[in-house]
Amino acid sequence: MGKYVARDRARFKGFSGPVNIPWGSVLDEQDGLLFWHGEAVCTITSQNAYDFFSADNDGQGKLRGKLVTAIKKKLEKRDTGYQARWDKVWADDLCQKYRRPEHEDWWLWNHDFFNAPIQDLRHIASLVGAPSIW
What's residue 131's pLDDT? Predict the structure, then answer.
């Protein structure tokens, strides 16, 4: 049984109905499902899990969530450095292990990215120019 932490307020329709989970709340993981107050919310590989929750088995879930959010926001920003940031990601060996391989011509982060070690996330944050002061 693992632990996950909400890295943003989570509002969506879960398995057991609508959920409204505050930032920083701890969820239990069992058999690939996340539970909030004893009710199944979503699977750990769902888009909802990727959007709102971070693994917290090492006590670093809040930091992991901040880094994942900062990386995604920086890469989504459509400014003059947009393509240069993505070029760095595509060229980086560490980033490659976090890319879903079934998509050859565009980038999707895989499940491991959302659960990556803090040092890997700090490397990626630095690579793309995202804040990594945490």
Answer: 82
